Amino acid sequence: MLSGIGRAGETMWQQILIVGVGGAIGAVARFGVHSYTQRSLEAFPFGTLIVNVVGCLILGAMMLLVEERPDFSPTVRLFLGVGLLGSFTTFSTFGVETIDLLREKEHLLALLSVAGNLGVGLAAVLLGRGLARAIV
Q: For residue 88, which of 24, 16, 13, 30 has the smallest C-alpha distance?
């Protein structure tokens, strides 16, 4: 299970705690971003798009660092990748919001949401990798 992800000498319970703390921070951050953006932009699910794209950007950078720097801490990977970014980004909310837009006959907005989350998300992963490569 988690023992294969973080091998920095932590016990399973320490790994769970690391992921849990990161997850709590990520969930609160997602709630904040989503609440702020949806208050002013209700027609389109910008909050979900923003958290997913930002998460892709950061995870793209982090994964390049993991590949390029073998000394990148497994604990940091657990905290950021699984915990913080795992709870910050939200595929399930994206799915529900897209179905809601389709049910409301907002087909163009649903298509834009899908294209934005997928296309811009993938571009953000590549951008994150490029930024990390430039820094390293």
A: 30
